[in-house]
Design goal:
By secondary structure, this protein is an alpha/beta fold. It has a single domain, classed as Maf protein. Strands 1, 2, 3, 4, 5, 6 and 7 form a seven-stranded mixed β-sheet that branches. A hairpin with a 2-residue loop joins strand 5 and strand 6. The longest helix has 19 residues. The two termini are 19 Å apart.
Length: 193
């Protein structure tokens, strides 16, 4: 069975490599819009499902497990994706400063006719981000390809007081949920480790 990651995210790629999985990366352009009346969990799951199904349809007939994931940041019911520019990154991080927010990743696995979608949620508590540090941070490349405008595994770790939930979910791939879901599909990708 081939394993296909339907994402170009370097963080997802690194996490799967660190788990010892052999996989290919195949992506297809998908519509990442959502209905703003949806709850955040459904948005994350819907986006992960779109990504996985777009690739799974292309591989129809192959024995492949397709993995789709999407991560969003949620604060006071507002969904934050990747910042568009410095002003957007500044605004987002100012809102998250000294607050607790949720990081929600939708995860979809497609194998043959089986399609399984779920989500993981992690609470992240930020200290107050000093304005000068925030300005220096948004002038780096770190905020711009990450939901919520920060990388927990990067410089932003300096401001994170605590997390409640899966650390890897905040990085962009909910490892524990993935492990549970592959078992639900009757797979054993890790050889009973």
């Amino acid at each position: 069975m081939e394993i296909i990651l339907a994402s170009h995210s370097p963080r997802r790629k690194e996490i799967l490599q660190n788990l010892g999985l052999s996989f290919q990366i195949i992506t297809r352009e998908t519509d990442e819009s959502w209905d703003h009346a949806q709850n955040p969990e459904d948005v994350a799951m819907q986006l992960s499902r779109k990504k996985a199904l777009a690739v799974a349809e292309k591989l129809s007939g192959k024995d492949a497990l397709v993995i789709g994931a999407d991560t969003i940041v949620v604060f006071k019911n507002q969904i934050f994706g990747k910042p568009q520019d410095k002003a957007d990154a500044r605004r987002t991080l100012q809102l998250l400063s000294a607050q607790t927010h949720s990081v929600i990743s939708g995860l979809t696995l497609c194998h043959g006719s089986q399609i399984l979608t779920d989500y993981a949620e992690t609470q992240v508590q930020f200290d107050r981000i000093p304005p000068g540090e925030l300005e220096r941070y948004i002038n780096t490349n770190e905020p711009y390809d990450k939901a919520g405008g920060y990388a927990i595994q990067g410089t932003a770790a300096l401001w994170i007081r605590s997390i409640n939930g899966c650390y890897f979910n905040v990085v962009g791939f909910p490892v524990h949920l993935f492990y549970q879901m592959q078992h639900k599909m009757g797979l054993d990708l890790f050889g009973g480790v």
